[in-house]
Structures are given as C-alpha cells and as structure tokens.
Amino acid sequence: MVFCGAESGSDEVLAKMSKGTTTDQILAVAAKTREHRIIPEFSFVFGDPDEPERETDNTLRFIRRLKAINPEMELITYFYTPTPQRAATYGDVDPLTGTPTDLDEWIQPDWVNWMTHEDPHLPWMDRRIKARVENFELVLKSRFPSVHDGRTRAWGKLVGRILALRSWAREDYRDPVLLRGVRRLAQRTRDDRQAYGHLRQGADALDVAA
User: What is the pTM of this model?
Assistant: First the structure.
C-alpha cells in the first residue's frame, strides 16, 4: 500500500493549496499502482470555502474516476477545518473564538468537534454537503470494503456489497439508511467518532491485526 495526499479533483484548488501536483499526476498514480498491484490510499480534503458545493461534487466525480482506474484504491476523507482566526475571514464561526490556552478548554465539546472535524460549525460547510460526502463514503466503502476494516463482520460486508451495488452504479448516495443500519449491526466495535482520517483507519488496522 502507498499513501497519496490527492486532496482535490480540481487543478485550480490544488494550485490554491500550493500542492505542487495535478489531477493528471494523481490519475497516473492510480494507473501505475494498479500496474504493480499496489493499493493506493488517497486522501481528499472537502469544504473549499469559495465554492464548497461545486468542488465537493467535482471531487466526488474524480474519486469515481480513480476507482475506475484502480478498483483497489482506498479513500480517506477530511474536511477543511482551519483555525478559527482563519475561518473567521469566511464568516461567523461562533461559538468558537480565538484558540484554547489550556487543556481544559481543548476538551470542551465544541473544540473536540472542531479538532476531530466531526461537527466544526463551519459557515461555508452546509450540513447537507457534509452529509453528501459521508453518504458517498459509506456507499463506496460498502460496495468496496476497505482492507483496513476489521470491525465489520463478514456477513455485514457481504450484505453491504449487495445493497450498495445499485447505489454506486447509479451514483445515488441519498441517505443510505439500509447501509447505515447494516454497518451498525455488523460492527464488532463502534466507530470512534473522535478518531479521524488516518486515526480512524489506524484503529481498523489494529482490529485486523488482532
């Protein structure tokens, strides 16, 4: 397996990030890893403040292109969560102001939600957009179970593959209630919602090793 911080499906956004890579290069990585039978692990950052909905849809389409090139690819999602000072340039980020100055402040619920990206109350990130990303990820990982997933029982993975087949083919990610229910029932241990991105993936890897 090899990790690649792909971040976006837009060359414009990648340039704004000063990423130094292009979407063509990311597609080439997907093709090269397939050629050498390597699993590529791509991470993406959702929630561009300028055009969050357009860029989200663009990146979801791009992930499907990567999946078509290398069906073994793994997905890690993040949401753009800058410090409150920077976020404030895009709008109101109450109730968070400044930055915590001690550990007691850092463990307050609002700050935990911010740090884990679980519910950071970003003015430009409509909850509908965030839900779309999460639903997409659920459909994708049900249709193509992650090699890291040691939490889901075998029967749950099988049922998830079947239920997600039509949704993935039709690019329909609307509120996958059945998939969510199967995941909940088939998990050996619940998701740690305070773990995020690689931390969450790492927990699954430990489960596999165990």
Answer: 0.84
